[in-house]
């Protein structure tokens, strides 16, 4: 076998192994193969033989991707093992077990914190602080997994402390509008702190923030599955105890539900991380199923809105419902962007995304018209200000997203511009939520 044929055979074996990884797409494999060939070419030009250049190039690939490491394990009879199988802290059977123990400890910690809050605090105080009782443990998991420095971990605690001071120092009117609004927006603001822990030291990386967007969607999927499975199990258990003449509902309400809910927040995150190869296949399926359905829903809602005859007479519940739908649409858009291969050309699904964004933009404009009209007639309230601000934030995002998607579909710009816009706009949502928590209650005397 001549030298070129032997090299092509080696590269073919390496690529075949890469493509068997479910997390690696054809475009990824092409890019990695190009990088490998460039390395081989440079090393050959420097005087190395073909075989030696190939082995050194694979070693360098292994330093940036564990695929080469795993390929070396499968071919341990070759020199690959000596050249590629570098010592790594992730190797060995202890790390998965250690991570499981860490996850279980943090899940139990979150559950104990929530149970202690329920046992010692008033209901309104617990509602305002529920995210403070649980999310620090989730942020702690990512800080541990990403090996965040002690200084970085201390910085992550600052937002939690500030939110704790604000939500507990304000003299809220019990069950007042501002208390409810603060309770809703505090978890949104703190979720971005979890995002900072997730991206580790790469907080400027658009790709890592898009990974966090995908993680959020997949975390919701896993949390929902855990909730459904836990609900079925709890229902069967209560039924079995009832059949035996024993009341088990108090145990479920006082212990199982708080421990299960808080613990599931951390466990779901661990499942997403542990099953990354499998979960990555969920995102494209979910977006392709729900995008057409959401388009139909928006069309129906726009038709229902048109039949009201006057924006002032629109039912308040319809406005709330459409606000929630806009949030869902934004989440679906972000999830679709995070799941898409950026190197592929535009297709039918991208055109559906454009339709979705345009319809959402139309809904947002109608919502803003209705809100401004109602404010002009009835005046400001905390709920109206919060909803108005959220719709303005969404309007900017959707309007620019529509422009970028249109440019991508028409072949005038790359997909990366849309991805960068979304990741760099994400902090706006967190900042808005923080402003609502900190400024809105005193503006309306905490009523």
Automatic annotation (TrEMBL):
InterPro entries to which the protein is assigned, alphabetical: Perm_prefix_1
Spans traversing the lipid bilayer: 100-119, 125-144, 156-174, 180-199, 219-243, 255-273, 285-306, 318-339, 351-373, 385-406, 426-444
Keywords from the named record: Membrane, Transmembrane, Transmembrane helix
Keyword Hydrolase listed: no
Keyword Zinc: no
Top-rank lineage group of the source organism: Bacteria
Record-given protein name: Membrane protein
Organism: Rhodococcus aetherivorans
């Amino acid at each position: 076998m001549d030298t070129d044929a032997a090299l092509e055979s080696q590269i073919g074996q390496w690529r075949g192994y890469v493509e068997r990884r479910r997390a690696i797409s054809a475009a990824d494999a092409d890019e990695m193969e190009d990088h490998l060939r460039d390395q081989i070419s440079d090393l050959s030009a420097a005087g190395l033989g073909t075989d030696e250049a190939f082995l050194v190039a694979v070693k360098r690939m292994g330093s940036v991707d564990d695929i080469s490491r795993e390929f070396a394990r499968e071919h341990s009879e070759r020199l690959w093992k000596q050249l590629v199988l570098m010592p790594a802290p992730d190797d060995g059977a202890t790390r998965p077990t250690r991570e499981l123990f860490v996850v279980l400890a943090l899940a139990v910690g979150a559950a104990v914190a929530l149970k202690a809050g329920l046992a010692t605090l008033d209901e309104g105080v617990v509602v305002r602080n529920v995210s403070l009782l649980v999310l620090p443990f989730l942020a702690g998991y990512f800080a541990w997994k990403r090996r965040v420095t002690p200084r970085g971990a201390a910085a992550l605690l600052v937002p939690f402390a500030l939110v704790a001071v604000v939500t507990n120092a304000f003299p809220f009117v019990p069950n007042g509008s501002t208390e409810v609004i603060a309770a809703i927006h505090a978890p949104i603001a703190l979720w971005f702190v979890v995002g900072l822990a997730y991206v580790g030291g790469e907080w400027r990386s658009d790709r890592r923030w898009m990974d966090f967007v995908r993680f959020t969607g997949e975390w919701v999927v896993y949390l929902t599955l855990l909730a459904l499975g836990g609900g079925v199990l709890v229902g069967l258990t209560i039924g079995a105890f009832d059949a035996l003449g024993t009341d088990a509902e108090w145990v479920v309400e006082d212990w199982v539900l708080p421990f299960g809910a808080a613990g599931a927040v951390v466990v779901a995150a661990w499942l997403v991380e542990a099953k990354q190869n499998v979960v990555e296949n969920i995102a494209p399926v979910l977006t392709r199923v729900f995008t057409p359905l959401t388009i139909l829903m928006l069309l129906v809602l726009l038709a229902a809105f048109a039949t009201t005859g006057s924006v002032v007479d629109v039912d308040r519940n319809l406005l709330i419902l459409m606000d929630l739908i806009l949030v869902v649409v934004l989440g679906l858009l972000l999830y679709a962007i995070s799941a898409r291969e950026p190197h592929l050309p535009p297709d039918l699904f991208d055109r559906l995304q454009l339709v979705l964004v345009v319809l959402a933009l139309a809904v947002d404009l109608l919502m803003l018209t209705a809100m401004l009209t109602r404010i002009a007639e009835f005046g400001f309230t905390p709920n109206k200000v919060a909803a108005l601000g959220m719709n303005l934030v969404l309007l900017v995002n959707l309007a620019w997203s529509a422009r970028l998607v249109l440019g991508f579909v028409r072949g005038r710009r790359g997909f990366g511009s849309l991805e960068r816009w979304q990741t760099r706009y994400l902090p706006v949502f967190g900042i808005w939520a923080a402003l609502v928590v900190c400024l809105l209650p005193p503006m309306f005397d905490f009523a």
